């Protein structure tokens, strides 16, 4: 038996059978457009009759060095007979001609594929016949010239300008603004001229044989699968190259046969806000493409309710039916021909993050989908949307209406930004830094030399490059909105301007970029920060909380941060960096005194001065986190960080010496001398503390062992604070965390000293505090000996920043300033390990640590407090490793809650 290459729209069951029942497979075979047209027929929606030539046929065509096999072509022609029967019309007939459209449709919608050709089947004879039948020569010749135009540009690759010039000429001649005012005679003339243009530029006459038209159009769709733009797009979007595209041949319906006719597009819900109300645009007396082409001002779909009430009601019913059937918001195309409604396309609609959240939540509330599905429909990255400035929907609408939309590129780094165009990194930097301007840096592509400009800019545009280009990587890393690969944008360095199609923008002019959608605009659009307290988001996240197994904690040093974390749903503090408080005014001097002193008594004095500050800080945190665990990390950074830098000191000293030479009196001289002496002392100490590799030097637990009074003071502050707030009725759970442990003996030594102090404070206050002593795991040796360490630690917290540095032997700051981008661009590292946990290396150490640790203490609390704790892919890993919680920035807590739920729901699916 012959293979079936062609499926009628009412044969979706056959397609399903062939593919083995799976809808994704049907989409693969018939393409998205074809599969959904067939599905609409199955559920009883009115669709103009037609059929789909499969993606397999496309692949066969491309594999056979582009010959249309008789087998496929004959099946297509035979299937066309059924359409003729159904419509009572005949393809190529000069009496009652059937016209069809030829529409491409791959499994995933992709730009760069061949466009649609409408009105196939028209020629001089059938045009005459249609004039006879409809009595409307204007309509017929408008349709005919459209066929020649589309066929010319789409199939033969002629410039559309050639045709547009003729139209302009006719409009001028008739002295009218719009095509709709041209007469039948005009259209006849246009048709004639189009044919001439066609034969002059295409190297052949316009094909008058309808079958030849159909075949050439079909072949052109097949070929466009391997066109450069389509291939580039697939590469960038990660779509497989062997899917092929299907071709849909469909009976034409006409929205341009006068009144009672219209054509339009709609979303079944609002794509910007998610509101459950149909929104769309339509045009009366127009054909398909006119609505999106923007040549005429469209009407809001709500007006159709007045204009054609019964059709509107029917449309509403179909919209509901489709939503119910597809269980998602739909994006539809329709045409009304003489009072009859036809559906031409449906697919899941695009939406903003905000709309995605609202739609998923409301659909679950209405029972259309389950809560699990709702949670899974929103990607954790979409929650990020609520945290960055965005252009307001009104601003976008207005900008589009006023023609400010310039072009689209790849949306590689989210958020909105406005600024004046700067064409070089140096200019971007000097404008931003010296003149305080907001700048958008525009470059063909970026290189490491451009990074200073990118940092100074509000946002970045490049005309070349893809998702892993230098510009994209740097922008994401620094959180700068960016749109890259804007191929319509031309940079003219000579004239210091950019050109986008016909618009010229000079250096210094305002532009706006939307890194979330990849669109760039001229002028400055209004930005707003979406509210993270979105009611639908809160509901969705509360559902996510029910599904997730990982706890979500936050890193917070101050009560305000803790409060924000709590508001965002955090269940504990996973990391309070106690030393951050040392830098504050009124404290740093004591800290410096402590570092400078050689006598234990002096040191104790300085520490005693710091103690009350720390106690108040901790008390504040405990109060906010009433009832929840708070992990406080003891002093971690090397001491020199609290002293002025060597270079600063040397400059200050030489300044003082100059002043000394010009000193006017003895008193001044004495003052200067005293200051010199003090600075020299500090300098000496700085020099003594100087380390070749501070990151691997005297810091963390080593520091605590070196200066035990320091950590004892911190523990005292923690327990005094705990006792104090407990007396006020706060339910307090401090966890003391020792940083940078590499050997169990370090922990042994520190813990006995610190625990003794803790017991002392509790005894002084005659209280019991529920506390834990634990350690960070951020040195490979600690991970590998976690069973020994677990004997002395009641909890582990993975410091994945340091663990990544020590596992790779790479210092993060140095790497990101020099070779990291290069490594990523060239695929040496698949991902930045400081952004996403390196599963095979760092992740493996974590797995070993969890396993060994829990072999000693089965319910050992294991968490992560590195920046990775807020990154979805790393959260997935933490879930897989069975960690107790992830701890991240308070801002990222909502993202982490959703990501943790996704990870848990993935397990469900596997079962
Ligand atoms: P695209 O993927 O670019 O939207 P489509 O194949 O959907 O291309 O078609 C482009 C336009 O032509 C759409 O507005 C569509 O509704 C319209 N169209 C396509 N086929 C027909 C048809 N048989 N009758 C009327 N309009 C059609
Ligand atoms: Mg199109
Ligand atoms: Mg379409």
Overall shape? elongated
Helix content: 40-55%
Q: Note the gap between the termini.
A: 40 Å
Radius of gyration: 35 Å
Structural class: alpha/beta
Give the integer mean of the pLDDT values.
Answer: 93
Count of discrete alpha- or pi-helical segments spanning 4 or more residues? 37
Report on the architecture of this protein:
Helix 23 runs antiparallel to helix 24 and helix 28 crosses helix 29. Helix 22 links the parallel strand 26 and strand 27. The strands form 7 sheets. Strands 14-24-23-16-17-18-19-15 form an 8-stranded mixed β-sheet. The two termini are about 40 Å apart. It is elongated, with a radius of gyration of 35 Å. It contains 37 helices and 33 strands. About 45% of the residues are buried. It has about 900 residues and is of the alpha/beta class. Bound molecules: adenosine-5'-diphosphate (ADP) and magnesium ion (2 copies). The site of adenosine-5'-diphosphate has 16 residues, from strand 5, strand 7, strand 11 and strand 12.
Task: Explain the layout of strands and helices.
Layout: E1 6-8, H1 12-19, H2 23-42, E2 50-53, H3 55-63, H4 70-87, E3 90-91, E4 97-98, E5 100-106, E6 117-120, H5 124-134, H6 137-155, H7 160-174, H8 184-202, H9 210-224, H10 228-237, E7 245-251, E8 262-267, E9 279-284, H11 290-293, E10 299-300, H12 304-307, H13 309-326, E11 330-337, E12 340-348, H14 353-365, H15 371-377, H16 380-384, E13 390-391, H17 393-401, E14 405-408, E15 410-413, E16 416-422, H18 425-434, E17 439-443, H19 451-456, E18 459-462, H20 470-478, E19 482-484, E20 489-492, E21 497-500, E22 503-506, E23 510-514, E24 519-522, E25 527-528, H21 535-547, E26 551-555, H22 559-567, E27 573-577, H23 588-596, H24 600-624, E28 629-633, H25 646-661, H26 666-689, H27 701-706, H28 708-727, E29 733-738, H29 744-765, E30 772-777, H30 780-784, H31 786-790, E31 795-798, H32 800-808, H33 812-817, H34 820-825, H35 839-856, E32 861-864, H36 872-880, E33 885-888, H37 893-910
Parallel strand pairs: 3-4, 16-17, 17-18, 18-19, 26-27, 26-33, 27-28, 28-29, 29-30, 30-31, 31-32, 32-33
Antiparallel strand pairs: 1-2, 2-7, 5-6, 5-7, 8-9, 8-11, 9-10, 11-12, 13-25, 14-24, 15-19, 16-23, 20-21, 21-22, 23-24
Helix pairs in contact: 1-2, 5-6, 6-8, 7-8, 14-15, 14-21, 15-21, 21-37, 22-24, 23-24, 24-28, 25-26, 28-29, 36-37
The site of one magnesium ion (MG) has 2 residues, from loops.
